[in-house]
Amino acid sequence: MMRATRRTVLAIGLAAPFVARAQAQPRAVPLGGSIPMTGAAAETGLNVLHGYQAAVKRIEEMGGIQAGGQTYRFELRLVDDASDPSRAVTLIQRQVDEQVPLFLGSFGSNIVLPTCAITERARRPMVQAGGGSDQIFTQGRRYVFGVFPRATRQFETTTNFFKSLDPKPQTFAILYTNDPFSRFSAEGARTSLTGAGFQVTDFVQLPAVVTDVTTVLARIRETRPDVLIATTHDEHSLLITRQMISSDTNVKLAYFGLGPQTAAYRQAIGRYADSILTASYWASNAPYQCPYFGSAKGFEEYYNRNFQRPLAYHMASGAACILAFAEALKAAGGPDAAKMRDALAAMDFLCFYGRIKFTPQGDGDAELMGPLVAQVQGGRLEIVGPPAAATARPIWPAPPWNQRG
């Protein structure tokens, strides 16, 4: 089994499979970038990293990528940014100066934003699964691509889920932190919900670093919204959930944009996690076919055979970034940065992750790459929306905290 290392530099060049002597060995194409292997975002950052590793390993096992009469393999040159944007900027600039041609993204818009500015100036393509802020995609950049829709377009499928409930919820409270991704996600959720006729009773900005939400939760107990939406990152979602439990702040449904997808969150909350909603950009039972892994289920089986870290959709998203680069390499005929950028912009590729197609601004097509709605049931994530992808019926309304488990 492979485990992610927490060393500062991670360079993965897996041994190439046997090739006849007369045939040239695959040529290594470096994929640079940083990822949070330590620090506040490490839990999800390591998930994305494992997805990168899984796809690189699989491509090696398949004998590499044929492009322009040459065989290529990918070599990961990822550095630990320790969840620190300033550190990430320094490390990425160093890799640009070292002529690394292609880049994978970090996790968190606060890191992807400044680092993609560096790769943009250098005209080096970046494909990433960790930054959804609208600012990444609305400032005229041409070399950064994301396998998620931008933040303000990510809530449409969730709004449709709420519309499908019987009886429909009426009132919503939205909490967000003062950072680009969380803020844009909250604004997108409010626009989507109000456009569908729902009432947003509270729209509350929290500090960028949250340590206490007791005052906000007192307000929630007063206004008694049907649904609490928190467009927060993992660590803040965990804190809010714990303080909701300890203060007996009950709502009919709670939705956290990030957090419940991870085994660490569900283990930390235990039985109280049941009924909590979240977003999931991929499910192993999705009906997708793939030339690399066979199917969505095939990716799950391959990952579990080779890695010990519990599988979450972040691994699938990370692997999708690698496959996007692989298909772009084929279309470009080689690792020319400008040609690969054009190939990414024109991509329309079906794989285990779904259909990968980017908007002209570089984010994932909202209709094709928007999230599924997942709910924790019995400690597991079940897909509850849209109906065509559902693996379970939603628990609605959720029982109060003292009746869970």
Automatic annotation (TrEMBL):
Pfam families given in the database record: Peripla_BP_6
GO biological process: amino acid transport
Keyword Cell division listed: no
Signal peptide start-end: 1-22
Family matches, as InterPro entries: BCAA_transport (IPR051010), Leu-bd (IPR028081), Peripla_BP_I (IPR028082)
Domain Leucine-binding protein: start-end pairs: 29-365
Taxonomy, superkingdom: Bacteria
Keywords carried by this UniProt record: Amino-acid transport, Signal, Transport
Membrane-spanning parts: none
Protein family according to the UniProt entry: Belongs to the leucine-binding protein family.
Name of the protein: Leucine-binding protein domain-containing protein
Native species: Caldovatus sediminis
